[in-house]
């Protein structure tokens, strides 16, 4: 039976890091050789197993459905996937992929692009040709971040003005760039052509590039194209708009519970709509999470019945049919404890097993059940970049601070004696300067008071641009929302940070008398302490914190039962900054009558013994923000690396606690402006009901702080100085290709211009002729002509 065959195949599968691919041929799983990875026959189905290199060795299984594959093959692939999942212990996440609509994660395995080939293995086609040079095909290339190339009819009628086409002739690959294609698309197509050359032709094929708008500049290459495609008659087709990548940001998300009834039918019951919380998921059940029809996810509880767990994939496909969703809707299936990052991102909070709660009290490295209550050591940041990023600390906060307040829409320097005092009626710019690798780095914080006028907020943004220009665009810009100051912002003020609800810090201005003022003090040492003014009512108190109540007659220091000795010490220090008067210590439960009178009488307040706020361990996500296709789009990049940061674009990195906008050196003004608006919109429409006050930090290429680079594995600080541009790559390739159409080397050398000759051989034509034969051969070898 098919099940037995599946078990025989599975016995030979090893769980080793990397990619393993099988195609379904005659209902059997047949391994695809590594040099053919990334090539997919449209008439076949494939199974892809990916095991990550990380210590957790997380595992993903995808099954890919070609557009012309048979129902039988699709059914066989689904059975094999379910068996493979079972064989690997039920922990992998399973994905259903449909040709042309693959998930970002799937595409991330094939960084140079996917190639869709006509036909299928069943019709006598093979993945690796025996004579790889006996080829004639035309590939239609689309995309910048996720590249796909589809085999199309070898004819001028397949071309259009906006895309890129590779004419693959085995020994030669000619890249024809549509006049309306952009630089990034051209570069990606060159990389794909090189990948075909290196992986499928053993490096023995030449590549040439024709600019479609300047064909007369490449007469030899055009001659060759015409010899294959014939003379072109009539005009080429207009460009085809790129598919809009799904934003996966559908605000309406529904969670359904499903179970079997006796008749073998599926019972689906709606449980909740977004924002979802983790406690909705019960281990004894299975659930379907519907992302507005853009994708469907199935979650299998650990204690659910075997039947419910094993039929999860088929249930998801059945659900899509019942809902009349398109057949290419994405499907993910996962088990409790092995949830995908995307799944967790749809929940307002997500707590891993063994995770302790607490923000600023503890930090954990990796997933350790026991967390020591330790003072945060900034030296660890340099040893562990990811920790620097998670804690959002760029250094030990010992750098230099300058503070300006917006007054009459201009910058007015603030007296250092009042550093750390921020008034809700004002806007401030704080420039922090520090050294890293003997180079000055800058962070520009924009603090906007809740009660500042719109003119002041606008002036604050305008003055930030002026300051940024003064330092040649080097500062990292951080928008700080009042009351949500990031960790590093607290640290640079060394325990002196006091946030006043209203009023202004301008000298000579008398603020209205608010009567009694109440301040909540949070923090255990000078690196994480701030005092925030709260409404002067009893309901503002919290048993976990220290509060300072200042009246005309008295200053009370109130200690909640849940606060520690360190917090009391920091409370005293802040109280001394706010008032030189003697402080009256008040213990919770032993308050004098005057204390309650000042607060307008007793009232219920927060008394639960919680450890502050739970931090959700959400995986970071990277998006490309680009208008290169003519309209502004955000495209997600899965399993991202530093290489995914495109110089031509703006990238959005969402670390949950913070949003980064990375500005590439060649990004255009429209993208930069639009990405900021999109970041705000992204937070507003996020299905998990995100905090709209989440900090948005702007980072320039080449000036990335460790809070950004720490999210990338093995960040290379020197990367941007190296690497070939598209133009450099093209000129390097250009003069090689024609070589194979010249019967002798000497004829080829004559074809080259003087500049091309010198570029290729490293000396002038005349000097080359004077060299002995052996030396000429040496130079030819170096140039790759032997």
What brief labels describe this structure?
single chain, 786 residues, alpha/beta, 10-stranded mixed sheet, 21 helices, 25% strand, globular, Gelsolin-like_dom_sf, calcium, Villin_headpiece
On the 0 to 100 scale, the average pLDDT is: 79
Number of strands: 34
Strand order of the largest sheet: 2-1-4-5-6-17-16-15-13-14
User: Largest sheet, described in full?
Assistant: 10 strands, mixed
Low-confidence stretches: 244-249, 354-382, 610-616, 735-743
* Rg on CA atoms, Å: 31 Å
The level of helicity is: 25-40%
Secondary structure class reads alpha/beta
Oligomer: single chain
**Span of the ends, CA to CA:** 55 Å
What is the molecular shape? Answer: globular
The count of helical stretches stands at 21
The fraction of residues in strands falls at 15-25%
Domain HP: 718-786
Family: Belongs to the villin/gelsolin family.
GO cellular component, one term: cytoplasm
Keywords: Actin capping, Actin-binding, Calcium, Cytoplasm, Cytoskeleton, Repeat
Structural notes for this entry:
This protein has 786 residues and is of the alpha/beta class. Strands 2-1-4-5-6-17-16-15-13-14 form a ten-stranded mixed sheet, covered by helices on one side. A ten-stranded mixed sheet has the order 19-18-21-22-23-34-33-32-30-31. The chain has a seven-stranded mixed sheet with strand order 3-7-9-8-10-11-12, sandwiched between helices. It is found in: Cytoplasm, Cytoskeleton. This is Villin-like. Its main location: cytoplasm.
């Amino acid at each position: 039976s098919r099940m037995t065959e599946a078990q025989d195949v599975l016995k030979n599968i090893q769980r080793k890091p990397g990619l393993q691919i099988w195609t379904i041929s005659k209902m059997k799983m047949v391994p695809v050789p590594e040099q053919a990875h990334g090539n997919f026959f449209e008439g076949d189905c494939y199974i892809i197993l990916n095991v990550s290199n990380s210590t957790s060795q997380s595992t993903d299984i995808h099954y890919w459905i070609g557009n012309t594959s048979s129902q039988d093959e699709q059914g066989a692939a689904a059975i094999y996937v379910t068996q493979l999942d079972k064989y690997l212990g039920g922990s992998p996440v399973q994905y259903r992929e449909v040709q042309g609509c693959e998930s970002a994660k799937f595409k991330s395995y094939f960084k140079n692009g996917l190639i869709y080939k006509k036909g299928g293995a069943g019709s006598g086609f093979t993945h690796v040709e025996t004579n790889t040079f006996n080829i004639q095909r035309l590939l239609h290339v689309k995309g910048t971040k996720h590249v796909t190339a589809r085999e199309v009819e070898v004819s001028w009628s397949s071309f259009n003005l906006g895309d890129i086409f590779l004419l693959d002739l085995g020994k030669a690959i000619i890249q024809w760039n549509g006049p309306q294609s952009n630089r990034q698309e051209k570069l990606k197509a060159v990389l794909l052509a090189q990948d075909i050359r290196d992986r499928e032709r053993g490096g023995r094929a030449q590549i040439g590039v024709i600019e479609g708008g300047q064909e007369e500049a490449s007469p030899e290459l055009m001659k060759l194209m015409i010899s294959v495609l014939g003379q072109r008659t009539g005009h080429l087709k207009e460009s085809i708009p790129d598919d809009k990548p799904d934003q996966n940001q559908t605000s309406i998300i529904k969670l359904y519970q499903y179970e079997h009834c006796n008749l073998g039918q599926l019972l689906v019951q709606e449980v909740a709509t977004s924002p979802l919380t983790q406690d909705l998921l019960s281990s004894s059940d299975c659930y379907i999470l519907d992302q507005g029809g853009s994708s469907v996810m199935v979650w299998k509880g650990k204690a659910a019945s075997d039947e419910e767990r094993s039929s999860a994939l088929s249930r998801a496909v059945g659900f899509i049919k019942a809902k009349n969703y398109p057949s290419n809707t994405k499907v993910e299936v996962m088990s409790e404890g092995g949830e995908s990052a995307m799944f967790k991102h749809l929940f307002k909070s997500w707590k891993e097993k063994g995770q302790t709660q607490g923000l600023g009290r503890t930090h954990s490295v990796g997933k350790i059940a026991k967390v020591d209550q330790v003072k945060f050591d900034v030296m660890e940041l340099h040893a562990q970049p990811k920790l620097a990023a998670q804690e959002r600390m760029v250094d030990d906060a010992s750098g230099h601070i300058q503070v300006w307040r917006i007054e009459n829409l201009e910058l007015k320097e603030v007296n250092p004696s009042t550093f750390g005092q921020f008034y809700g009626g004002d806007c401030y710019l704080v420039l922090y300067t520090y050294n890293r690798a003997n180079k000055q780095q800058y962070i520009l914080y924009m603090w906007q008071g809740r009660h500042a006028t719109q003119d002041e907020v606008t002036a604050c943004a305008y003055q930030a641009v002026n300051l940024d220009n003064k330092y040649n665009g080097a500062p990292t810009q951080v928008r700080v929302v009042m009351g949500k100051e990031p960790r590093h912002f607290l640290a640079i003020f060394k325990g002196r940070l006091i946030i006043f609800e209203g009023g202004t810090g301008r000298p000579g201005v008398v603020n209205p008398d608010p009567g009694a003022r109440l301040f909540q003090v949070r923090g255990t040492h000078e690196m994480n302490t701030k005092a925030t003014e709260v409404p002067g009512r009893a309901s503002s108190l919290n048993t976990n914190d220290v509060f300072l109540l200042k009246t005309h007659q008295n200053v009370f220091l109130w200690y909640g039962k849940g606060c520690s000795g360190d917090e009391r010490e920091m409370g005293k220090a802040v109280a001394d900054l706010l008032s030189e008067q003697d402080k009256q210590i008040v213990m919770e439960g032993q308050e004098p009558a005057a204390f309650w009178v000042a607060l307008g009488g007793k009232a219920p307040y927060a008394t639960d013994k919680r450890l502050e706020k739970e931090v959700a361990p959400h995986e970071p996500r990277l998006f490309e923000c680009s208008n290169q296709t003519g309209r502004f789009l955000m495209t997600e990049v899965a399993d991202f690396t530093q290489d995914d940061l495109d110089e031509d674009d703006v990238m959005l990195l969402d670390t949950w606690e913070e949003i980064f906008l990375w500005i590439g050196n060649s990004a255009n003004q429209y993208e930069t402006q639009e990405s900021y608006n999109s970041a705000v919109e992204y937070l507003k429409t996020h299905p998990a009901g995100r905090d709209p006050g989440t900090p948005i930090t702007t980072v320039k290429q080449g000036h990335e702080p460790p809070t950004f680079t720490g999210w990338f594995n093995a960040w290379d600080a020197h990367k941007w100085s190296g690497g070939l541009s598209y133009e450099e790559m093209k000129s390097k390739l250009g003069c090689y290709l024609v070589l194979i159409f010249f019967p002798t080397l000497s004829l080829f050398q004559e074809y080259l211009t003087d500049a091309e000759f010198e570029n290729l051989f490293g000396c002038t034509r005349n000097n080359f002729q004077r060299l002995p034969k052996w030396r000429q051969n040496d130079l030819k070898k170096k140039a790759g002509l032997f």
